[in-house]
Amino acid sequence: MEQQRTVVFAMCGSFCTFDKVIVQVRRLVEQGFRVLPLMSFAAAGMDTRFGTARGWKDQLRLITGYAPIETLQEAEPLGPKNMADAMIVAPCTGATLGRLANGISDTPVTLGVKSMLRGGKPIVLAVSTNDGLGASLVNLGTLLNRKHYYLVPVSQDAPLKKPASLQSDFALLPDVLECALRGRQFQPVLLS
Fold first, then answer.
1. Per-residue pLDDT tens for 118-139?
2. DSSP of 35-92, one letter per residue?
3. Is residue 131 part of a domain?
4. In angstroms, rounded to a whole number, what is the distance separating the alpha carbons of residues 192 and 186?
5. Per the domain annotation, does 186 fall within a domain?
6. Are 37 and 68 in contact (CB under 8 A)?
7. Least enclosed by CB within 10 Å: which of 35, 84, 148, 171?
8. Domain limits at 108?
């Protein structure tokens, strides 16, 4: 009998994409993954026009059966205790890209990534940032050149209104995860 695979699913504060991302959490659970939700300080603590923090936490708990990890203390043991096979960061904001590229682990998401990398686990990044072709591009490039990072294919989401904005195709998350678990980057990385 095959052992159930576990993935940490971390959400950062690109609130406008939460509806798309929650669908992927549900898909992973339906595919048989045990999903441990994790939220950045912003995602776990801010009410926005896209929903309340409590509402998103309740949805994650209902879908996964687990309360979201929200603190540094809860995120730190993920790697050392071998709690998951991989980690997804979706949506991954420009701020999170910057922290990861520069080794800053001062949020639950970035400490969770650092903890998982300690054991050589794959990290899947699904980017959503208004400065993806601006200030965040250097950080994205840095991470793509590091071992254990895998990118969900990305494109400009509104090139005429927001020419520097990038957003991953969240629907590809399960496929990218399967490739990452085999040590391969899903292709193509850049969508037209």
1. 999 999 999 999 999 999 999 9
2. EEEEE-HHHHH--BTTB-HHHHHHHHHHHHSSPPB-SHHHHGGGTTTT--SEEEEEEE
3. yes
4. 15
5. no
6. yes
7. 171
8. 6-181
